Amino acid sequence: ATELQPAGICGPIGPTEQLPLVARLVNELKIDLSHAHFWGMDEWIIDGKAVSENHPLSFKKADLELCFNRIDPQLQMPKTNLHFPTAATTGFIESWNDVRCVVMQGGQGEIKHWAFNDPVKRSGEFEEKPPSLEEYKKLNTRVVDLHPSTITQNGGESIQQEGVTANKNQLIHTVKQGETLWSIARKYGVNPKDVTDANVEKGNSLNIGDKIIIPISDAVKKDETTPIVDVPVNPLENPEDSIILHKVQKGETMYGIATKYGVSQQAILAANEDLDKGLKKGMKIRIPLKRKIVKVIETEEQVVDKIDATLDSIDSVDYANSIKGRVEQVYDVAILLPFELAENARRMAKCPPFGECLTYANTFRALNFHHGMMLAIDSLQKAGVNLNVRVYDTKADTATINRILGKAEFKDVDLILGPIYVKEIKIVSKYAKKNKVQMVCPVPVSNKALFQNPYVSKLTASKYTQVEYLAKYIAERHHQENIILVRNKYNKTDEVYFQLFKKTFAQEVVKYDSRNSDSAKVAIGVGKSSKLIYVQQHMVADKKNIIVDLSTNLGHVSNLITKLTTTMNSNPYNRYEVALFGMEDWQTFETVDEKYKNRYHLSIVAPGFLDFKSPESIAFIEKYRAKYKTDPDKFSFVGFDAAFTNIKGLFLYGTEFSKYYNQLKTRGYYNSSDYQSAEEGSGYENKNVSIIEYDNYHLRKVN
Question: Read out DSSP for 281-320?
């Protein structure tokens, strides 16, 4: 939504658990709603008048308190852009005229009754039969007599009984599935013994739906912020955590309160079940604080087992023994990604009213990186790793990066994931070195970024590392065959890769007594002929011909494939056996037909490989869909791998975990971890490399 092209959404219906999440997304992603609009779908009309905003069943009340009042004031849409229906519908209808509605919510009720298209009153011309479809389409915003099933459904959604106040000293809590006296006491920030004493008749047995008393008289003593429990009795809690009581002031929002105490809005909502009705001046709400302290771990082995089980780790080191008796911190992890939301909004504003409008590619990529990282973090937290995670939008802007790094809170960061742009990486790598905090680059970056900076790690192997690995791989697997190396001396980068492969292969192949040759045969180019003359002259009939071309130039590769096909279609070469090896870039060359990649059994070298059909990947996709309602892409898997391995290292070895990379080898979705430093005092490169073969129009990893 922009000033010139305002836009909005219509919905949702009534108080739903998604509303606070919408506010949280807006705040955390800093989405500017100053030109956005919202239309409420429904309101209750009693005796010809819309219920007041203070009515407990008011839809307007629910939307404001559960969502819009929780948004940071700097991001909120103006009150004039919030449109709620009343008994007099003219103004509401006119508000649609000049603003594009992007989303109209709809939904089926509990009995497949389409909420809330209730029939018109069966009187007058409609007494004998309802209006036709054409007549129905002409109906506008209107007051209707609700069907009984709609009233039942609305009532069930609108009335909440959790945390009902019995008197000033007590709350009544309704027991839910899986809850215990311990968990309920922790939720309200009171001593479990007090809850037990207040519900003697219950004993230690609870049933779903039971109403139990929560005594709060000892907790609520003052209006100002006061600790409720300094040292929780629950042994699972951090002994230095505390829950404090905050009195809501006029104009305060959930976002502002959460920011003030440095906790998430979700944590506050979880500790205050009565907040489904929104904030009110004078309310006393519980703020669960987790201080960054050190505590002794009693079950290190259990935590490590859970972590390893998450990815079926192939680690051979006994981590449980290596950390036996050590202590664990609540670690701070910062995620730096360029969401570029403003640019995405600008592009979306230009979308036509109808048809598909895609998210800005850079925004989409950053979101996928983020989602993958958060899945890894969720897995580790469930395994018992204590983390504070902060997500920052770098906006692809160096000034923004500098502002983020200058925040006081950033000094507490123990691990940085991202950023992904070269200019940003340069700034953050200097900060990482100065402040001795490890940063992980989840995208390909020059090894120059690692030089004399041990606080930089890169997730993907460089092209040089890939070429070296390929030379060693071919020397080991194909030393008995006929190796032909194609040269492209007209491209400086291709020439560097050519020379590196030639040298490395010669060094490796002599290790094998059964080798066919001491070095690769060199084809000086693709030539000007219609055939691959310089390759032909080295081909043999009695051995497989392994043709290696390390070019990343589309024109050269297309020329090579075309001329190789002409050669292989002619005598005697049509009887020769050929296999082709190339670079990862070849996958993106659309002018190279897939049938030729399969015909020549093309194998490519790459820093990783995604097998979407593996049980592990399928399980990941299912989790991703369930959490984010969309499918993951390559960046989602890469984000997971980057976060999982390095946070695992943070847990096992502390903030200097990079020194133990040789013991920290985990199997990832896209690539496994094999971080190595080229020289003392420099950063770490993940040297894990994949060889991927085209086999019957399928890709498979062969190393």
Answer: TT-EEEEEE----EEE-S-HHHHHHHHHHHHT----S-HH
